[in-house]
Sequence to fold (272 residues):
Amino acid sequence: MVALFHHNTEPTRRSGASPAWWAMTQVDRGLVRLLGRLEVTGTIPPELRDRPGLIAANHIGMFDAFVLTAALREAGVNPRFLLTAGLLDTPVIGWGLKQGGSIRVDRGKSNVAEAFTRTIDALRSASGPVLVYPEGRISRTPGLWPERGKTGLARMALAADVPVMTISQWGAHEAVYWGTERVNSWRDLMPLVTSGLRAIRDRPLFRVHFGERVDLSDLAAGKPGDAVRAHKRIMRAITDDLVPLRADEPDTPRFYDPTRPTDSTSPWRPTA
Fold:
């Protein structure tokens, strides 16, 4: 693993992003620097920065989207996400994500095939790679290794015929607690506030590694079993690159978050 650029001299592409999103990502970089230290390794090849594609990342905490946004900015890529309609319909955050060119996924539509086709069309016409969490949620495994995940990302990659890269990350879980799924009062926000203040004091290290392109050239959309095979390759690639990022924490994280559920298992966790 080779240390990369901490200060990229190449301007980040603004294609598909509004000035408002550009300003928001600047604020994001400042927030990440306030709560910790960002260390980026690996690279995104120049030929993949401005073309449609997917970037698959492990999901470890409430703050990791902020960290990945900052890392993508440093890599010269406009941060954009593949998100459910619920997130994009929120008043403030959703508006900002739309400004960045994020793609909407209508999972609740009665016509699932139509929703999938719309997503594929949007992905093919995107002006740069789009970030996706194949797990679908923050990992709830005790060791914070990737969960099994779903084949949706793999199916989209094969159907749209776009390249897939991976991101492995570690450390963002130390910035903000998992918290709670529902906020009923200000008391529900207190774990997030207190953990954020602790992060400002302790300044944890946020490690982000851009992995290689995942080879899916021998797989095809619609061929039985190929979506599962593609999903396994993507998740294995994420896990393989995660191992050196947390070499001194192979079993369970040193940082303990009492609010994060640990009721899941990881089929990808290294056994040796």
